[in-house]
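Hi again,

Forgot to attach this to my earlier email, sorry! This is the prediction with S-adenosylmethionine bound. I've pasted everything inline since the attachment limit keeps bouncing my files.
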Amino acid sequence: MAKINIVGVGPGSPDYVTPAARKVVQNAKLVVGAQRSIDLFTADIKGEKVVLTAKNLNDVLRQSAECIKVGENVALLSTGDPGFSGLLHTVLESGFFNSADINVIPGISSIQACAARLNISWDNTRLFTFHDEVSDEEKEKLISAVKCGRTILLLPNSRGFAPKDIASFLIELDIDKKTPVYICENITLENEKITSSTLGKILGNSFGSLCVMVIKADSEVKG
Ligand SMILES: C[S@@+](CC[C@H](N)C(=O)[O-])C[C@H]1O[C@@H](n2cnc3c(N)ncnc32)[C@H](O)[C@@H]1O
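Structure tokens for the complex follow:
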């Protein structure tokens, strides 16, 4: 039975693309993904390729559903891991597919790559994503996790809840300005940059949109 394979492509470097991801892409009649994801598979793609944009998402999902109906496999490329702030949620919510149509190929999330860079064991961390939505409910959960002294790994939102906005939000709610933060930009890419700072010091700073923010207890972070 043909599937829509939602393929995790990792944080961006070809070194972090799994052989399982390549195999699925090689066998797909239709490969869909953002340009930077498609570029990771230039030598693997044998079928039709479609560059995914915010505008064509619905049309492309409909086309994917039609493909699998006629027995053709689809590979939908999702950055990092599809299950964390990725395309799995979009596909499940689209209404075009049932569970049996979907096959997820896990990928290395930017969150995992960030935790690895900072020697963070993430068993007891709290994960947040504000990438798609910045809700009051999630902001409330964030503040209580910080107040409980939990290590936080989060995806900011460059349009409304960027690292400096998060710092300002937390400081206004009495979180210590000296709380350590780490901003990991472009992880695994040539322009990777890790900034070690504090909530107070990043108030005036801007970072690239491809970043993970870490707010954490000092003793758990490597220097
Ligand atoms: C749509 S979300 C996808 C997250 C993805 N599913 C994952 O597991 O990493 C996109 C956000 O992931 C983060 N991200 C993805 N790749 C990254 C990288 N190489 N370095 C830092 N952050 C990255 C950024 O916060 C970016 O805005």
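The pocket of S-adenosylmethionine is lined by residues 11-12, 78-81, 84-86, 109-111, 131, 155, 184, 186-189, 209-212 (CB under 6 Å). Helices lie at 19-26, 35-38, 57-69, 87-94, 110-117, 136-147, 163-172.

That should be everything now.

G.
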